[in-house]
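$ fold --in a.seq
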Amino acid sequence: MSYLQFPRFAFTGKFQADVSTVNNDPRHFDNEHFEASFQEFQSKDAMNGWWNPTGTAIMRFTDCTVKSLRGLTGQLLTDPQSDPLIGCTVGNSLSRPAGKLVDLDTDWQLASNIYGLEVSLIGTDGLPIMTAAYESNPFRDLWFTRSTAGGDSGASAMFQSVLTNIVWHRDLKSALLDQLRSASERDEVSIRLSTYGYQQRVKKNGVLVPDFGYGILLGNIGPAKASQPRSFILGRRFMPTTSNGAGDLVSGNGIGCFSSFVDEQTGSLNVDLSNALPLGEGYKIAPVSGQPLQFAVLLDESVTQDAELTKDGYIALGNVDQTQNLQDIEGGLQSLPLPGNLLQKVRGKPLAIVQAVDGSGSATVCVREAPHGLEVRADAFTFKLDPNDLVQNRTQTSLYAARYGEPCAHQKLDFWIGSPAPDYSNTPASGKAGATPRALLPVNNVPGGLQLTPERAQTDERGVARIAITGPESMGNPRGYIDGQLYVVSYNFAGGNTAIQQPYDKLAIVVFSTFPARDEPIDLDNPRWEDVQPILQQYANLYPVMSQGLFDFSKQEVADSAAFVMHFVFNKTIDDPDQMPVTRDLSATKRRMLINYFRNVMNRTGKTMDRQVLFGKRCPLRELAGDRGAAPDLTGIATRRIGSKS
């Protein structure tokens, strides 16, 4: 079971993603060629530090409320009198700083991950009902042209994961919550967050934009089952067979990839349209013009997208809900009843969205389920391996294969690493002479040494294949100024009958560099300032809201005076929102060296509890950006200190 099944509830509102963009250009990692202008806002003719160099990486909910719920029978409820859960607030941690949104790597910004996010459910009386931890999972189904806004403002994506470590603070007397707890396993629930309408313009006509760094959030929570993947719906996958100039898989009338699930127990088709339909003015749904769209069963497997059908070529299941109300109230989820006769018809036959072309019943196929109903997807798909630590240099993942929602047993899968290629997509040129970074472009996917075993995996009776991923015993610095290397691994069914996949459904793997190298005389337990300074300098360059907004730890006297705080944040786990660096791109040995350096400073000076302990145990920026009302002030502070271009 998942957020797409009953019982479930929907919440909508906004999210803040205050990402830092200095590290969006990999050439900015080069300390030798770093320029002060790379920490400034972009201008009309220079990219500088892109559109948000002052970002804190904060990721959190804002103004999110429960709008509707569907119980075990699927009945829609929107009136607070029917269940006290309706109208409650879905918020952030009650005691910790906000979560962080972080790219896997500067060369792979297509699966950003949320770390340290805690989710709370607050009653209309302001008292907590539930708190839980979001299990870190990156977004999926990213596409850049859902709206015409351009850039990240035109993009849309969805996060799916589970909430763990659930604490129930009181009994709300909510029938839906009681059903949800009973239906879930391992004290976890499934959650999906769809995000779009992101405001990436900091100024308009010289005035700060109030919603800079905010976007639209559609959320759904439902039961979680141990047998199901956590990061996607294993069901009936709709896949356009055409792409646009941006590389998005999208139909001719603007519909993207999306998933659905046929629930045999409740006799219903449940469809996630939160990240599927085109957007118009104000990021509202732009209904496809012409006759209403209908969900349908195609009676001939060979019918392709854009084909015209006679009335005998399909069975209509019901209209597609293209209203804004579906997004705002139900989080973009549509449920259609499937009586017994229709339930039988959808088994083993392709689902589609069709549009009538005349009064005779003829229709055009707008988008359909993937050919032959084939789907194969990895649950965990981003990884960081570390040759400096045997345990961290090996991981595993599960891949799920299905045909029309049913497991594909005993199917062989192929894997292949991408060809060596420079990162052209994240290294734009500036129009202003001399403003383009001078560092050489990094090249990915070399050298070899990454191992996936077995080389040709095979699914079991449940359609699941497990593979182990092992990094090389040692890794140099193939990207020079960027630690380690990025490998992008594609996968699919072996042989000629492959599945259509979303462009970024790949395994993205970072392997850290071996440190110290054999020719580096570094004592990890007793490092010198000269050993740690290059790492701190790079972080100070890439994260100016810290180095200029708080203190510049690239200078020894400043870093040493803040030894307690530095030791504290470097010693945090990856899922802690306070961990430093926020980019989470340190190998085990580099982290060990930094922890030991600041520990030695504290031991040498005897000052383990100076005034900086006031920041300790919490994020130093918490007071500057603790709530939505303070966010513009944080931008203003950083803008004044670092400089801004309109």
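$ fold --in b.seq
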Amino acid sequence: MDSRIDEITQNALLEALEKAKDYSRQLQEKREQRLWREINIPCNLSDALRRLSKNELSKIRQTLGFKNLSSLKKGELICKLVNLIPAKFKNIIYTFDRERYSLAKRMLKNKGCVTANGIPIFKVESLVRYGIAFPGVHHDQKILCMPLELMNIFKEIDGNELESIVRRNTEWIKLTQGLLYYYGVMGALSINKMINQLTGQEADLVGYIGVLSAASDYYGQIMLSAYGYQDHRVFDAKKIIDEQKMRPGVHYYPFTKQQLLKAGEPDFIERTPAMSKLIRFLLEYYDLSDEEINEMMLQLIDMINLDMMPTRMIEYLGSWLEFPSFDMVRELTAKLTELCNHTRMWILKGHTPNELSQEEKKHLKPMPAEPFKLNQTDSNIYNIRTGAKIGRNDPCPCGSGKKYKKCCGK
């Protein structure tokens, strides 16, 4: 089954993304203006809600599952939310992991406010959707503010029991993100069963799903689909499931708990020997920063999981680099082929093509007979460019506010 993305479609997508850049910047500016307006501190919940638009209030209602409120006017909806959010806030707190718990603790210690420097917009908006904290500007500084009513609830239940729940939630989230990093797509029951085995404890399925839903909204690492939970990089969950079903004899690769916790970290890269060889090879020719190397390796892993051939990866690298010679590109192609055959794939349930039996050797990537096409730009330098470079950590040109890698770039 050919799961490779059509080349024309990819090039059209790159062109569309480039054209959308200016529009994206305009949307980003509007989002910034809306979020970062003057706010009085300390604030109560009513004041915080009145600063929001009707659409933002509706997102809170939808996120927290408040029914029969869609027909209310803005003022009426605020009156309802002022009562409903505190009533549900205890349950919201019980979905916290270490990051959100620490943020709430900092707000509690600082009269409900913390500086928002370094907190991405998509996380800020998630905090708003859950009614946890609200953004604003105070004394020319961007801040996040937890309303007084909610601070009092958090203060009442904070303690050893909550800290234990936070540790459990953090482990659940990291393990789940790690499983999906390697397997791509899994049903909630399958993940829950694996987590029970890894932790040695029975995880309540309803509680687990609640924790995962909040984490998915906040981190954007996990997405819910018709096929269960999926890694944010997955392009087509159905194709992955179909490919996995074609190999009933291939079981999930047995990762250790520590391997999965490590893979559950944001922007994790499994530095295999094949990848290390490729990096050393690139550094022989180019002066690349750690950030640039990580960017390239993350994108190459994504392309491998989309079952792209090494020639497409050469074209991607050509959007970053100028190739000095034909022989260099030939050797680079060999290094990429080795990387493909030693990278864990979603369709192989976390195995590498090289690890599987002879039946699975068809997934090994051969050296292409014509591995590359070069456009000569002068007598000594070759350059193959497929379109403007969009970094994985750049804001997505679609205007979602998320990073490109977590939106259209997945």
